[in-house]
Structures are given as C-alpha cells and as structure tokens.
Here is the input.
Amino acid sequence: MPILHLDLKAIKGDVVELRYFWDNPNTYQSRSLSLAEIAHLTKDAEERYYVSSKVRDNLATIGRELFNWLDGSDRWLVSQLSERLGETVVLAIATAGQLSHLPWEVLHDGSQFLVQRYPAVVPVRWQSSDWVTRLSAQSDSQNRALRVLFMATSPRSVEPVLDYEQEEAEILKAASRPSIGLTVEESGCLKELGDLADSYGVEPSGRRYFDVVHLTGHATIRQGQPQFITETATGEAHYASAEAIARTLKPPLPTLIFLSGCRTGQAGNGGAVPSMAEQLLQYGATAVLGWGQPVLDIEASRAAATLYEALSRSNPLTEALALTYQALIKQEARDWHLLRLYVSQTLPGALVKPDRTLGWQPAPPPSVATEFLDPLTRNVRVPTRESFVGRRRQLQNCLRALTQFPHSPETLGVLIHGMGGLGKSSLAARICDRLPHFKRLVWQGRVDSANLVNKLAEALEDRTLRERLQDPNEALKFRLKWVFSQLAQGATPFLLVLDDFEENLEARGSGYMLKAPAVEVWQALVWAIRQGNPRHRLILTSRYDFEASDSGVLYRQPMDALQGADLRKKCERLSALKPPQLEPEATEETKQAARELVQLQTQAKQLADGNPRLLETLNSLTQLQQQTTQLPDRQERLNLLQTERQAQPQIAQATTLEQLKADP
Here is the structure.
C-alpha cells in the first residue's frame, strides 16, 4: 500500500517547511508555508470545526480549504495522487503543536472527501521524529479469527450516562461471526482489565493474545492532561492517564488500541498538549484510534462494528478505516470525521488472514465453564469469571456496601434476593473473587448452631481457638465474639456466605421471617461481628427478602432479569440460542432452516423472560438442538453443546417448548 508522507516542520521564524515523499525520506520535495496562515486555519478550525453546531454543513468547505492550502498553486498534491490512481493511498501527516489541531480527516478535493474515493485516500496522523523518518507498512497477519478485548466504562458520578450497552451490542452483533472473537471485561475497572488480559498470557511468538483492545467511555482533559475515565471496583470515577493504560496492558501492547471516548484524539490547549492517542504511541502503542470530540453513542457504536467486521475480513487497517468512514457518511452520520487514526513507526496491514485460508482457526466459543461457589464442598455450580455475564451495577453496589467500613459501620453484609435462576449464587461468587483479602466460607441451605461452628472451626488453624469455639458450655454469641476478637489483629477477615438462605425462612403474613432455629444463629453472628471484629462480612442469597432483628445491617440487592446486551451475551454462550449467521451464498434450504431456528429462539426467549437458568434449560431442548444441525456452523454448536453438558449436568432434559409450557 503506497504511503505519501507529509512532514510539517518549523524551521525559522514564521515559516514551516512541508516535506513530502513516498518511500525514501532522502528524496523529499518541499514547499514553505506561512505560520500566520497556519494560525488562521487553526483559529478557524477551533471556531467552526470543534465548536459550531452547524459543523456538518461546513465540513466540505473546511476540507477544501485544507486541501488547497496543502496543494498550493503548483498543485503538487493533485499530481502526486494522480500517479497512484487505482490504489488505496495513505496520507501520513506528521504535525506538531497547533497543526495537530487541524481536521485532516475532512480533506476534500472539490468533488468529494478523499476518504470517499474508490480506492480511498486515507489521512492518518503520523508521529514522526528525528529517529522515525518514515512510516513502515507492517505485514504480520495471523491465520485465525480477529481477537478483540472490549471494556466499557460509565462511572456513576459522570454525566451524561453513557449508553455503553448499545456499542457493546453492535460489536457483539458483528462478533457473532466465527471470524471475530470478542472478550468482554464486565467491570469497567482498569485493574480488572489488566488481570483479564494477563490471564490469556503471551503467545510463543511474543505477541500478546489480543489484536485489539477497545475502551469505550468518557475522556477529558484534566489539569492540562488527557485522561480516560474508568471505574473503581465500586463504580466511582477513576481518571486514567495514557501511561496508566499502557502499564495495565503491558508490552508488547496490542496492535490496535481503540479509545472510543470523546476527546481521546483531540490535542489539548489548542494543540499544544498531545492527545491521549498520541501519548499512547509514546508508551509503545503501534496504532491508536480516538475521537476528536464528543460523538453520538449510536455513531460510535456503528463505527466500531463496521471497523471490526472489515478487519475480520482481512482488510488492512487503513482500508477498514476507509470503509468505516464511507459507511458513516452514507448513513449521514454527524460525527464521522472525528474518528482519527494515530501511528508512529509502523502502519499495521491486515491483522488476520481470510477465513478460507488453509489452517485458519475460528474464534473459540464464549466460555460456558463453571466452578463452585464453595470449592471444598463443590455443591453450588456458578459460572467462572470468563463465563459470567453482566450484573455490573449489582456487583458494584455490593462491593461498595462490603468495603465502606469504617465510613458506614452499621452495614455488615449484603442480601442478594430474587426468584430462582436469576444468578444470585453466581453474583455472590463474583463478589468473593473481587475480595481476595477475605477468607471465603460457604454454608448452603439450612444453617444451625452446629454446622455454623463446625465449618468455622475447620477454618481455624489455632487449636485453642477451635476448642473455645466448640465449647458447649458457653452461649454461641460469646464463643463467636471471642474467636472474632482474637482474629482482629492482622488475621485475614472472614467472608461468610449463607447461600440459599430461604431455607431458613418461613412465610408470615405478606412477608418472610426467620425460622426459630435460625434466629439464634443470626443474632449471634451479627452481635459477635459487631462486638468482636467488624471487619468480617456476610453475604446472604435468598429467594425472599426477610425481616428480623438487626436485619438492617444488610444492604439489599434485588436481582432482575437479564436485558439488552447482557441477554444477548448470555444467548451467544448457548449452543441453540446463539443467533444464526449465514454467508450471502447460503442455499435457500439453509436460509429456511435459519428462519425456523430464529422463530424457535424467539419463543424460547419470551418464555425465559431473561431468566439465565431457564435460558440454559430451554437451550437443551431437543427441538432446538435438532434445528441447529441444519446450519453450516453445526459442528461449532455441537462442540459448545458438549462443553455445556459437562459444565451444567444438573439441567433437566426436555424435548419441546410445548412440553415446558404444559409442565413448567
């Protein structure tokens, strides 16, 4: 792919030298530009491009002025581009200071934007230096599906609230093809993103696992420096610098980082401060996409989905970007021109090979692996961290309640309540994962004095503590208080999980109360933690909320049905409920089979009403499974089904939807 380099350098006084060349920087040609003229254009862009609400109507005018300014009276740019007709051309534009503030993406030749041409002329922002004098094309495509790591951030205290689920849903839709492997980090927390990326390790070639890391959220310029607003573990705003992001992802950084946040591609202070995208290049990134200003959520979503679909089809990065621009322009998107690509030494080509290449590896199916809430007894199956879907706000609410001591010493635990199958135990497991400095102990179902003491004693290494706890001659609350107080100095606090706590409740009027045997246990636990060591915490899961003395120490977290992007992600993980994806050349018989499957899937989803466990049950229906065998991806679905049966052996088998409707 030919690269026309445009390197603008200040040389003396009010003069800037424009050097341009194709391959050899030693054969450059040059022309001089006046800084006064450049300052005028920068001011014009500031007033008309970044601020004006009527900017869309002025884009062609702005782009034409920029093109004419570069082209000059000798029409060198027109001449150079005419030599490469029929080829996609990259305009590698190196700027500094205020020049970086100019909207190079809207360059217009008088007939159309350069990015609209076929083949396109694609402006990219090239970070040159004394030791980086040309941009080298990279050809290192992998013979497999594209791998994308996605994280959306939308802290509670930041306005406007980001509709990140829309962007995630668009990318999920594009990623439903076997040529895209999408991994979603659910928390919005930078540390969790780093841990997830680390869990995939480094390939034998030295490459990191993911080709692309996509961060969507709000960005800003704070104290003169660009910051991306991520989330803490409890959902509050955490301002992350480019250096923090680079340190989190660790070298070698992925080939492409997409900062889908406003102003990630805008230089601060009128161009005097490098944008976050430019700073990431300085920390070792190869290519960074960013937005020059706040953009509409729907346009950011469409841009990401179009880009990744094009990349997955083995289009080089700049061609994929051109296709993205063209799609947005065709849709009359307001903000298409704000999408900016930054590169330094290397311009990536195709990230992956075409899916028909010999030996090509499709994306692995999303994880449906399970683990146990209590690894010792192995009674309660829950999704692994990789299989867990959604529940971000519920998780953050619970973490905030459990970690806010000493600011709110009255809260000692959380009660996760809701109907069966909504994932209460799964949420409890993820809370435990996020609190590694606690020691997890799990009781399932009925809890009495004896089984509470026995399990707690097994977790105590000190013989004296065990004997004192098991002393039958002293009331339970005093035994617990003594043990908890002895553990107060430096010992790991307990996270006491009471799962399926509804077995300790009975109906009373319109609500629920503790059964008599559970009253002693509950009162003793609460009193002993308060008096002995308030660092210990409780997690209860129950189908029902309940009233009891001291039940106010629990933060109530209701569970509701999966909706939107979370529901889609859950279905993508199920062999019979993932949407069918057909190639354009599919036969009419295959298309009819897909339509019939979609009808069955729609009925199943309506019946499940967002209940994860019921979705898993419906997924196992013979009626649905047989329909999937008529699709081209039947082997992939069969492999996923085998994994499901190993991970979820407790799911009852049924034949048809009608059976379930008749006998729920």
Q: What stands out?
A: The chain is about 35% helix and 20% strand. The CA atoms of residues 15 and 224 lie 28 Å apart.
